[in-house]
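Convert to structure. Protein one:
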Amino acid sequence: MSDIANNVANADLPIYGSLGMTFMEFPVVSDLTTSDADVIVAGVPFDMATSGRSGARFGPQGVRQASAQLIWEGARWPWQFALDDHLKVADSGNVLFKHGEPQTMVDNLQAHISAILNAGKSSLTFGGDHFITLPVLRAYAKKHGPLALIHFDAHTDTYSGGTKYDHGTLFHHAVEEGLVDTEHSIQIGIRTAYDVDGHPFEVLDAAWVGDHGPKGILEHIHARVGDRKAYVSFDIDGLDPAFAPGTGTPVSGGMTMDCALKVIRGLQGLNLVGMDVVEVAPAYDHAEITSLAGATLALEYLYVVAANKMAANK
């Protein structure tokens, strides 16, 4: 039995959770101990924590399928190298859990990510709704201690009044549990109400982002994060609905895709340890716009990881 399977209890496979194509046609991995991959992709087809429209359970499938549009480009523009020349990536498929029992998702996802980290690798996770980030952060904090969080979103997700399984409360719980280093964390693109007094994170709201652009955003991110180990969480509704209509809680006035890609690209040099892309809901999409956005952001992140690896090996 694979090391991933050994770390998953109460497993089941929802009918919408089967793996079609892998992300970017990366090879499938089941035994991490024999894999030479640097980064492991995982999907979490879960949307039982949504407060708006459901459908993000199909996000991993949508992002993987849309990645077919990116495979033909050997060296992605504007990078001057092919990703697979410098970074090995494998796809571990979807996390298994019992339909209708959210705690099995929480337990199995945390075990899945822990298996990846304990094998000396990092994760790239596709949601699913944003609640899936909480068990991911629990696994990361257990391995690395509290992380700097770089969070793109229309919402802060720090609300304290939600239920146990709620995509709007996950960062409230992450702070309460000591999973993130709030003094070195930052939220970008926020454009919904939150309690400003005592808010634990620095916030660059959507209006500020629009006025200052990628250069200003990156100056704040690098100053805030410094040399801390950093985790990137990208809720696709951080983008304006013009660029990401396929999501459960769209909010007008968000980031452009060009701005988002420039910011992700500008994270080069930071100590990045993992990323997730969440809240892609293909049922509300048009022409795979949102799925393609999610796949493109994830691929850009992988190029940043590769560039960091190249710089470290010089």
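Protein two, convert as well:
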Amino acid sequence: MKQMFETILYEVQEGVATITLNRPEVLNAFNTQMNQDLKLALMKTKENENVRAIIITGAGRGFCSGADVKSFADGVALESFKKMVENEELMDLLISPYDLVNVEKPIIAAVNGVAVGFGMNLCINCDIIIASENASFGEFFVRMGILPDMNGCFILPRILGIHKAKELIFTGDRIDAKEAERIGLVNKVVPHEELMPTVKALAKKLAESAPLAIGMAKRLIHEGYGELFSEMLKQEIRYQAKLYASEDHMEAALAFFEKRKPRFKGK
């Protein structure tokens, strides 16, 4: 069963829903339309009793290259974000970790290429990460004068330990798939041509397992984070709103298009 969205491909087969980010011409950079499409697709998988496992991957050479910088440089996404921050009801339109956490079905990230910025944090909010040898990861936010989204400052230290997480967040460095596996960021790295067969086999195995047991185990694991998870996410949104409005962020966006190093002033 296939369903059409503007920026993703969505298909359900044998109890497995496959969500493919589909803007390959920009390495699946995340924009407001993809936000809407991905949020709706995750909702559909949550509500579909026939879906027991989910795969998220990217079309073409990339998984997701982060936020579409153009939409921030021209002010379109920035204005949308400001409105959402100012109006709590509109915040529900913005994709969040809860869109993945509250789906009590296993979600596998099949990382076929670059996964940086939002792309990396989408991965770490999935339940299992399988990466192609061509994959790479990076918390690129500091390059744009902002902080990690999708509760990255909460989740990443719990995966990697506080010092390694700080290193990746503070430097914005990119790491390859082998290093990601070595530090425990991903579960497994496979040859590129084996990525989807490997992920589909795992998804099928999970889809044939006990759905209530998996769902409640996932819920219990995340309940262990307690209120801190929620409070960190709220604080992230407050801090991010200030950073998006900063001169440094606008300078970073302009520097990106002018292909030069940004001149940050701390303002």
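The chain has a mean pLDDT of 91. The chain is about 50% helix and 15% strand.
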